[in-house]
Each structure stands twice: as structure tokens, then as C-alpha cells.
Amino acid sequence: MKFVLVGLNHHTAPIAVRERFAFSKHYLPEALNLFVDGQNICEGMILSTCNRVELLGVTPYEGTQGIACVKNFLKAIHQKCDSYDEHLYYYTDQDVVRHVFRVASSLDSMIIGEPQILGQVKDAYATAQSLNKTGTLINKLMHKAFSVAKRVRTETKIGANAISVSYAAVELARRIFTSLEGQTVMLVGAGEMAELAATHLMSAGASHIVVASRSFDKAVQLATKFNGSAVIFDRFRERLPEADILIFATAAPHFVVRVADVAAAMERRRHRPMFIIDISVPRNVDPSINDLEQVFVYDVDDLQAVVESNLRERKQEAERASRIVEEEVAAFVAEWRSMAAAPFIAALNAHLVEMAQAEYERHRKRIDRLGGMSPEVERYVREVIITSILRKFAHPLIENIREAAAQGEQSRLCETFGLEVRVGAQQQVRLARSA
After folding, report:
1. What one-character DSSP code corresponds to residue 114?
2. Quinate/shikimate 5-dehydrogenase/glutamyl-tRNA reductase domain spans which residues (predicted)?
3. How far apart are the C-alpha atoms of 201 and 209, rounded to whole Å?
């Protein structure tokens, strides 16, 4: 049995093409029933996200023939599939294993190291499992993929550094405060990026949020979302002493807070640290405020510099993660190929037992003329002596079979032992001639 995978993603296709191939949650069960037909595709699963659509299958057919089985399915449900052929990628066998491990480990994601893809892969697998569309090979592959993803997360820092401006704000805040637990956040302005930064800060442990906006209704609405409090925009300076972390994001074309405002607040704070994030363009915060003791001001460029630095670090960690994936691919492929030896070994053992039993029966009359054997002795000869002889005789042959399977040389198995492979929904092996 062979692995085959056909797909497209953000690297190979624009959104207009990806959405053409996407499978809705509602349609996915029906699609899986059509895809895994039990003859051309014996096991399968479909991963469909905003950034990728991939069909993974197990087929009895080699290379291009196996790929054709998946493409025929795509053509059946997407009438214009051929026009998008340039956007598709194809993998078989070992390359499938590598690709699945990289996807689960977030090495193939638009944002390297993002954690969402692993959950999406697990969901896709769970759906296929619930419909009984997976089997021994995909089960082994996916469980190993989850293990590899965990190892990558444990042994590297691929997901440790912030690579969005909003997350960078949290990372910088953590450098200033020993802990974000109990810190108060003030949000001045209610832009989307500011709201996202506030969301991350609150998730990281900040306990209270104060929102000021020129639209008081919007301030109330946002404050309610965080179980915080709203303040009229013109009075936010009165609340500055409460704020440990301030996020400015207004459309004002000038500074809305100046050195005197923050200096007065710091007096009342007894110079406890204050962290100010200015993500407005033009800037809302007078950069001279950064000269005050225990006040730390960062603008969009500062945050972007953190993001770029972290991206470089992630790329270095991705190289380490790739080496881990290659180790795991080699180990999985060796185990998978050894599984291919099982039907050959079973066929050889069955044939040897059949030959031994036939030979025993041929000599049975002569044994009877020589006085015969008691039932206990005869059972001992059949079950112990003959079995022991067969095992010793078969051992080097079986080792040869396993070695050939590990190297992917099934044709060598057939040639060496006279085995004939019958291809179908289930791979069957029988002896075409005496071994």
C-alpha cells in the first residue's frame, strides 16, 4: 500500500483558487465517502483550511497511478479542476510522510510556528476516523505526526517569539514588568490593532482595562467586552496614574499626551514603571516622554523591529525543527516499510507449513508400519518439532524479506521467493510457485 497526497496552499495558489477547492464542514462527510471508495483509495482524510486544501490517501497503486486516483476524484467534484492544475502539488510515499510532519509542526504555515494548524489537522483526522475512513497506515502516520509536532514544540523555540505587532506589545510589556498579573491597561482610542493588543495583554494576565474613545458609546462597548470601565476621552489624563500599560491608537494628527501629563501621573504613581505603546500614525505620544524615569515608550517602528528580530529567530528554530522532522521521517519510513513485509512473511510461513504437513502425511503410513506413535507423541511432532524446524529454516529467509521491504524492494521479494502480489482494495500475497 502506498501513500499519496494532492493539495494546494498559500504558496501555490491565491485565495480565489483555494476557495474554489475548499470543503465545507457540511459537505466534508459526503466528500470523504466519495474519496475513500475502498478500491482506488483504501484510507483517506481531507484537510481544508483557509490556507490549504489537501487530500491524503492510501492506495494500492504506484506513483502517478495513485496520484491519478486522487485527481479523478477532484475532477468529479470540481468540473474545472484541469484549469487549476498548475496550482496543485503531488507527493507519494516518503515525500507524503515528510510533508504531513512539516504541516503538523507548522513548518509549512504562512506564519511559521503558529499553533492553529495542529488543531486543524487533528480535527480533519478525527472527522475521517469518525467516518471509518482511516486504517492502519493513516492512523500510524497521524499519531506519529502529532508526536513529531510535540517534539518540535518541546525541543525548539519555534513558537516562542512574537511575530505580530500585537503580540510584540505583550512581549515588551513582559520585559518591563516581572509579571502582567494585576496590571491595569488603558486603551486610548478603539482601533482594531489597539483592541487586539489589549486582548493579548488581558489574556497574559492584566486584570483591568480602562477605555477612552472620542465615541463614548464605543468606549463603553469595548470596556464591557473586557469587563472594564469607560472614560470620556477629554478626561483620560485624569486616569493616567492608574495605568501600568497605555495603548494609544487614535486618528488625531498630533500628540494627545505630553511630557507634563505623564510626569504628573508618575508623581502620583510614586514612579512605579509605566509602559506606553503608541501604534498611531501620526504618533499620539510625544517621544520626549521616553526621557522620564521609569517610563518606557514604544512606537510602531519599535514593535516592528521586535517582530523582525523574532522572525529571524523563528527561521533559525525552523532549521532545527526541520532536522527533527527528517530524523522522524527516516524512522517512520523504516517502520512503515517493515510493515510491508508482513503479508510476504505470512505467505511464506503458510506455504512452508503446508509443505511440511504434506510431507508428514506422505510418511505417515511408513511410521504406522514401524509401530506408529501415540496421540501425544504425534501432537508433539506436529506442534513442536515440525514448527521448530520450520522456524529455523525460515529465519534467514524472513530476515531477507524484511531487509528487502525496508529498502522498498517488493519486486525483489516476489522474484526471490516466488511471491505474487494481487493488487486490490486489500493487498494480498500468495506463492506463485514453490519457494
Report:
1. -
2. 171-306
3. 10
Counting other chains too, the contacts that 384-389 makes at CB distance below 8 Å and 24 or more residues apart are: 386/356, 386/357, 386/360, 389/356
pLDDT: which is higher, 48 or 402 = 48
Peptide bond into 287 cis (omega under 30): no
* Identity of the amino acid at 119: G
127 labelled as ligand-binding? Answer: no
From the list 74, 67, 90, 65, the residue with the least C-alpha distance to 8 is 90
pLDDT given for residue 354 in this prediction = 79
**Following DSSP, what letter does each residue of 163-178 receive, concatenated?**
-SHHHHHHHHHHHHSS
Q: What does pTM read for this prediction?
A: 0.63
Cell numbers for 86: 498548475
pLDDT grade, residue 414 (50/70/90)?
low
d(CA 198, CA 165): 12
pLDDT at residue 411, as a whole number? 56
Task: Decide: 426 and 42 in contact? Cβ < 8 Å.
Answer: yes
Give the whole-angstrom CA distance, residue 168 versus residue 174: 10
Identify the residue whose cell numbers are 484537510. Answer: 47
Task: Tell me what percent of the chain is helix, strand and coil, each rounded to the nearest 5.
Answer: 60, 15, 25
pLDDT tens per residue, range 284-340: 999 999 999 999 999 988 888 888 888 888 888 999 999 999 999 999 988 877 766
Identify residue 282 by its one-letter amino acid code: P
Q: Annotated binding residue at 418?
A: no
Q: Are 85 and 17 in contact (CB under 8 A)?
A: no
- Work out the angle at residue 170's Cα, subtended by the Cα atoms of residues 169 and 172, and round it to the nearest 5 degrees: 65
Q: 52 labelled as ligand-binding?
A: yes
Instruction: Determine whether 42 is an active site residue.
Output: no
CA nearest to 303, candidates 166, 176, 177, 199: 166
Q: Which amino acid type is present at position 13?
A: A
- For residues 235-246, average pLDDT: 95
Residues facing residue 53 across a β-bridge: 8, 48
**Catalytic pick among 42, 50, 69, 81:** 50
Grid coordinates belonging to 28: 466534508
Distance (Å, whole) CA 103 – CA 177: 35
- Specify the pLDDT at position 433: 43
**Residue corresponding to grid cell 477605555:** 211
Residue 194 pLDDT > 80: no
Residue 45 contacts residue 125 (beta carbons within 8 Å): yes
Phi, psi dihedrals of residue 322, rounded to the nearest 5°: -65, -35
- To the question of whether residue 190 is assigned a binding role by annotation, the answer is yes
* Cβ(209)–Cβ(198) below 8 Å: yes
The answer on pLDDT for 422 being more than 60 is: no
